[in-house]
Specification:
Helix content is about 25%, strand content about 20%. By secondary structure, it is α+β, with helices and mostly antiparallel strands. It has a domain of about 160 residues: Beta Barrel (Cyclophilin), CATH 2.40.100.10. A hairpin with a 2-residue loop joins strand 1 and strand 2. The chain starts with 9 loop residues before the first helix and ends in a 6-residue tail after the last helix. About 40% of the residues are buried.
Length: about 290
């Protein structure tokens, strides 16, 4: 009898090769300092020009105005809330808010978890495959010099676009929720000696994140409240390293728009406050 071939999910078909190699922790570790040494080189910025490391404004840790738009995710693991950045990612935020207001994300799934890197959600199917209800719109990436992949960052994740000489990740309805690499003592020492924007370096050290996602994707939001639920999803076991599909079904039960004035958590925006626990942020060199 011919063995039945398991249907590959969206993650495997579109991005498996790239994520199984480039985004493994060991390679993240090797690339970590490299990212910061590139801060002083010509990188891709919103206007297509060079990125001046001294001209970076850490808006993710500025206290939002009361009327700033936020999205609340009510999940099977609890709720978390993120502030949005319509000034920096106007086209995507308009598209995303429309999906939220239409109830698109209600009942969608978290379909992939990569320990210490991210989880991916917003799929109509538990394995990440497209369905008849999947919104397949692809938008040009909106990369902004003031938005960085700290822990809790919301990234719009679509398919690869552009030409063979200028590949880029388009924006789509699926969401990549950024977790954080572990900050070992050696990591921190190398980071301190790498140069670049000191405030940006300190923010990564204090708040965590994935520095080598920098200036590659459309960042459109920052989680600032509900990290207990957020971390619970980040830490879920997966069925296997190929699919990275959570063993336990995780759903976004409801997503809705509100304002910061209705969902305040001013303490998060204090840059001296660590998002990560000390156990997560610093480990011994032997681990």
């Amino acid at each position: 009898m011919e063995k039945k071939t398991e249907k590959k999910n969206y993650y495997q078909v579109k991005h498996s090769e790239r994520f199984k190699t480039y985004f493994r922790f060991s390679l993240i570790a090797m690339c970590f300092v490299l990212v910061f040494t590139l801060f002083q080189a010509c990188q891709r910025a919103k206007d297509g020009g060079g990125l001046d490391p001294d001209d970076v404004e850490l808006i993710q840790y500025q206290l939002p105005k009361d009327d700033a738009p936020v999205v609340v995710f009510e999940t099977s693991e609890g709720s978390f809330t993120a502030v949005l950045y319509p000034d920096e990612a106007p086209e995507f935020c308009k598209y995303f808010e429309g999906l939220v207001n239409d109830g698109y994300y209600d009942g969608t799934y978290v379909f992939a978890v990569q320990d210490g890197v991210y989880f991916m959600g917003g799929s109509k199917a538990s394995d990440g495959t497209d369905t008849d209800s999947t919104d397949k719109k692809q938008l040009e990436p909106e990369i902004h010099k003031n938005l960085w992949p700290f822990k809790g960052t919301l990234i719009s994740y679509g398919d690869k676009g552009g030409s063979i000489f200028d590949r880029k990740i388009m924006s789509g309805s699926r969401i990549l929720f950024v977790d954080s690499v572990e900050f070992t003592e050696d990591f921190i020492k190398e980071l301190d000696s790498a140069g670049g924007n000191n405030d940006l370096v300190e923010a990564f050290k204090k708040k965590g994140g994935i520095p080598n996602f920098s200036q590659q994707y459309t960042i459109f939001g920052q989680v600032y409240d509900g990290f207990e639920a957020y971390d619970a999803i980040c830490g879920k076991e997966v069925t296997d390293s190929e699919s990275m599909r959570p063993k336990q079904t995780i759903t976004i039960e409801r997503a809705y728009m509100s304002t910061y004035g209705e969902h305040k958590n001013d303490s998060f925006f204090d840059i001296s406050t660590d998002t990560l626990s000390s156990a997560d942020r610093t480990v011994t060199d032997g681990e």
